[in-house]
Amino acid sequence: MSVSIIIPVYNVSSYLEEAINSVLEQISKNDEIIIVNDGSTDDSGEKIDCLYSNHPNVIIIHTTNYGLGGARNNGLKHATKEFVYYFDSDDILSPGLIESFYSTVSKYPNLDLFVFSAKSFSDSSSSDKLPEYDRGIDALFSDGKQAFSYLYSQDRCYPNAWLYITRKEVIDTNNLTFKSIIHEDEEYTPRLFNVAGQTIVTKNIYFNRRIRNNSIMQSKFSERNIIGYIESVNSQMELVKTNNGIFNKMLKLRIINNISIMYELIYHKNIQVSNNTKIMLAKLIDSNRGLALFLLERSFFMFRVYRYFELKFRKRTKIPYYKTNNL
Fold this sequence. Notes:
By secondary structure, the protein is α/β, with parallel strands linked by helices.
């Protein structure tokens, strides 16, 4: 039993030693750490080489900048162990994660997915409320769909990839890779739950997320955020087509959540979108007509949000097409 821990690095020189050491301190001799320097423009790459190039458990990869999703995918290509864990290079792993995971797998040898909790901390003295990632339960689920349905019904289904250790066979068999978008975890994690078998969820906290002002998720919102959510909704709608029951219902509620966030970004934060993005929104609405009734049955406000998008983008946007005589 062993774990490949994939750590993308991009311009986090001030944090990476603390982050990577928090992982090194608890791995076994059979585990591997794959550090992907994703085209850093600071001295992160040099620092990685200096500190870890001679460590027997560490593999270092230097690439051009692909973004977080692309860096994770590059790391996955080099992963050789039975399980995979994606870790962020500015955060801190709590002691005991790997030991607890191994103990759990020894009791449940068919385990596909290990789901845990996290807490946040800030580098600044801000009094803002920090995000929480509390699962609130220790439980065994027969599959990922059951786990997703329960967690989402309790508002405890967090998409962040650093909250999951996954059997690599599940990843490989189902081609689970990340898209090169912002909010890549929002698109990825429902697909992971959709195909995972036996799943363990624990309320134990094994991850400490650093909130820093210049990180991707704390930076100013832009059109890229809208595109990321469009990709997520499209992906989740594909899952809706092939599922039913409570899992399907929870997926639809997740879609509603994503749509409401897009509405907030466009309507309240006044993010301007290009014609290409308007076309993407129009196509999303046009291909998911049944969603309007689902929204109306559950929330008149969200139905109005849907209608807002429909009127603003679907009916006012010309979708290009190519004429053909081969009909």
